[in-house]
Amino acid sequence: MSVIRTPDERFENLPGYHFAPHYLTLNNGLRMHYVDVGQGDSVFLCLHGEPTWSYLYRKMIPILAQAGRVIAPDMIGFGRSDKFTEMEEYSIQMLYDTMGEFIQRLNLTNITLVCQDYGGVIGLPLAVTLDERFARLVIMNTALPTGDRPVSEGFKQWRDFVSRVGREMVPSKLMEISCVKKEQLNDEILAAYDAPFPDASYKAAIAALPLLIPTEIDSPFAEKERQTREALKTWHKPALVMFSDSDPVTMGGDRFFRKLIPTAKNYPEITIQNAGHFLQEESGEEIAHTILEYL
Fold it and tell me: Are 97 and 129 a contacting pair, CB within 8 Å?
């Protein structure tokens, strides 16, 4: 098991990201990085996905911090957190276990889960398993890949792309392709998405994760996703669903979650306009203000 750590200088002077780093050393010895801003009894736990990191939430963090404490961790393999060098070291179960330990070690309670992409794949099972710690859900551009229902054509194309490029993936290029408002992106912002990955040895996680999504009924972690789906059918706490209008990977998922979760019907059907898969990058301020308005 070989583990590497992205040099600190890679994270210097990133535009819009001036948060002091915080670290937790997990029981397995890996170091997890997180942003910790704001105060209060309410916690906004912002979980990123693939192939991003907490930088994706930089526009939302100061706004949410007006209403409570904001925690934005980097999953193992991403951002400033430690990274395995081998793809075989990664599993959804490992990411679930390490994030669960993170939540419990920091003793986070009264949590509003803010999740997108893999942040939902991992975060929603955690919310129903650690039910007493979670108070609200904000679900964006994600899915519950249970293996007993077909994945979208957009996801199949994404998985096929990753299987071809592997460690040659360049997160900034993916961000540029996925965004609708390309004029908002500049070279410095795009470079920030590449910052955690100086070379291919750092890219095991981003090459592995799309291939781990359960697509068969007996896929690893598929049963956990099915249990989560069943638990969400009786979820009685607030749940706000916000998907973007231009994401081919998760398109239609908003209808699935609004139908699945009883309390999601208590809120308007909000669609973030003119935004692709990474809606936090394109519409972060709008999303954060909407969360505060309704929750």
Answer: no
